[in-house]
Write a structure and sequence with these properties.
103 residues; mainly alpha; Helix Hairpins; 6 helices; 57% helix; elongated
């Protein structure tokens, strides 16, 4: 999956109005009948940028791994010492306990 700003040929500080204009311009060029792959890429890029909530999700978590899949906890933790294999309350308790021991 390509980075949405690259697909729509926009700067990262583009306004919502500029994003919509770029999306509509790309749809005129890449119709679903003539270029289905690019049409899908343009549609997915617009979905990731179409409103403030979607843009915030992209900025916070980066590109989705598979479609709309949420990031795993291990992807969000910056240090290897916190790598874990399960999730839930016990996992978070373990993370908190480990972080206190490193302070």
């Amino acid at each position: 999956m390509l980075y949405p700003f690259e697909v729509l040929e926009l700067q990262e500080n583009a306004s919502l109005k500029e994003i919509r204009k770029a999306y509509l311009r790309k749809l005129r060029v890449y119709s679903p009948e003539k270029a289905p792959e690019m049409f899908q890429a343009v549609s997915e890029a617009y979905e990731m940028l179409k409103d403030e909530e979607s843009r915030a999700r992209l900025e916070l978590f980066g590109m989705p791994l598979n479609g709309n899949e949420a990031p795993e906890i291990n992807d969000l933790l910056p240090l290897k010492k916190f790598k874990i294999k399960r999730s839930g309350v016990a996992t978070w308790q373990k993370i908190i306990k480990q972080s206190k021991s490193y302070e």
